[in-house]
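Help: read this over?
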Amino acid sequence: SSVVADRLALKLVGPQGYVLTEAGFGSDMGGEKFFNIKCLYSKLRPSCAVLVCTVRALKLHSNEAPPVVPGAALAAEYREERLGLVAKGAANMLAHIQNVRKHGVQVVVAINRFHTDTDAEVETVARVAREGGAFDAVAADHFAKGGAGAVELGRAVMAACAATSPREFRHVYDAKAQGVKDKIETIVREVYGGAGAKYSPAAEARIARYEADPALRSLPICMSKTQYSLSDDPKALGAPSGFTVTVKDAYVSAGAGFIVVSLGTISFIPGLPVKPAYYKIDVDLSSGSPRVVGLS
């Protein structure tokens, strides 16, 4: 359905139009899957990727700011100017920029601005992003100013699209030529910045079966891992390197056309049974007032 939506949108806007599609969270998560799974099957080639970041997130990725605790007030480091934290945490942003550029796609960094961000902090992010390979980096004030706050971002995206050719696009691995483990470890090295992978006995057994079947061996890989880090360790902020990820399990999603691989502590969500529980839920209207039945 996602591919159908993109093709329909491209048809509607015409050859001179622009289609924006949401590719997921992070270049290591949704971005990597978008480039190496969706683009593989759709044959569509993006001209530009918008990388959204915040000053607050970069401060967190400095590894020197206090942790963010849900429900608690933000520490002063996130509400006051801290250029050193921003510059150090920008290593995470640079890793994401490099990941997108490895696929031959231009990057525009959208700095999602909060009212506590200072001009100097925003300018620091923009400067580091441009020096690190981004086509451009602009502040996005659309939350405060509506559409007017995103005009410069739109212009930057249009300029990036005009400056590149979809022919420059490339995958980071060859789904048909490389083996399952080779593809997994290519993603770990080229996208996550790690050194390699180790496998649980269950994963080893499953992958061995997939390697023996040419139809399964040629499928792309859909990695399932934490969104909080480039690694499989949610506490490893910034731009960690040289780490080894743990492949916990794997299964074939035959209908979708890829092999799902879980890393670290990620567990697969059980699928629905043949007869889901909602079949037993109803509204009893026989008494004076409606009553929901079948919830327990």
Q: What stands out?
A: The mean pLDDT is 94. Residues 55 and 86 are 7 Å apart (CA to CA).
